[in-house]
Amino acid sequence: MAGISNTYLYDEFDHLGTYITYNRYDQKIKEGKHDWSMSNVIDEFFKSESWETEPVPIQAFPDEVLKLLKALDTTQSPGWLLAESLIRDYGKQQRKQLATCLSTIRKTTMKKPSAYFAYAHDDKLLFVWMQKSHHDFEWKKVKDKGSSVSLCADNRLNMFGILIEVAIGGVYVKAKYFKVNVQSVQTKENQHIFDDAKRMLSRKNRKDL
């Protein structure tokens, strides 16, 4: 590979192992964090005499996040691959944090028609609205709330939305990606969005005191 810049030479098992462990391992390489023992997960699998019938190694996700990924895959609404890619790019710690957020609002949604949260990591912001599947909802209300949240966030330019419908018992029925409309200029038409953002910031500031 001499003379070719930005090129990396892998053992094929190392290559497989890296992307089972980290979805965006290419970014770690750029950061100078390459680990030469990434084939371990593959090596351990083939050590077993019954490897042909055992489950193949896959990326590890908390159950709550797996339910969301499955719902996105089942629904397959426009943009679902973008949402799935964002989630899969999270590291181990971020996946755990996202699972905690999802579990918390799922329990809240069992008591109320809907709940939401925003999860920020690096330069991306994920806005999640969870809704009981047997309750009617307005897309405008959901998207307006996402826009309000964007006004409270530093990394709002890279913001993604996911709407999750849950059935009785907390089963994820559907999950849909949607684009959050980030407002930049206050107008008469979006005044309510800016007012809502001010209320959210005021509540946050009181909690921080």
Counted by DSSP, the helix tally is 8
Helix and strand pattern: HHHHHHEEHEEH
Characterize the main sheet: 4 strands, mixed
Q: Tell me, what's the shape?
A: elongated
Beta-strand content estimate: 15-25%
Radius of gyration: 21 Å
Calculate the terminal CA-CA distance, rounded to whole Å.
57 Å
Structural class: alpha+beta
Number of strands: 4
Order of adjacent strands in the largest pleated sheet: 1-2-3-4
Number of folding domains?
2
Poorly predicted residue ranges: none
Mean pLDDT: 82
Helix content: 40-55%
Q: Can you walk me through this structure?
A:
The protein is an alpha+beta fold. The protein has two domains: 59 residues, no CATH class; 146 residues, no CATH class. The protein is built from eight helices and four strands, in the order ααααααββαββα. The chain has a four-stranded mixed β-sheet, with helices on both faces. Strand 1 and strand 2 form a beta hairpin. Helix 4 packs antiparallel against helix 5 and helix 7 crosses helix 8.
Question: Could you give the topology of this structure?
Answer:
Blueprint: H1 12-21, H2 25-30, H3 40-47, H4 63-75, H5 80-88, H6 92-109, E1 114-121, E2 124-132, H7 139-151, E3 159-166, E4 172-179, H8 191-208
Parallel strand pairs: 2-3
Antiparallel strand pairs: 1-2, 3-4
Helix pairs in contact: 1-3, 4-5, 7-8
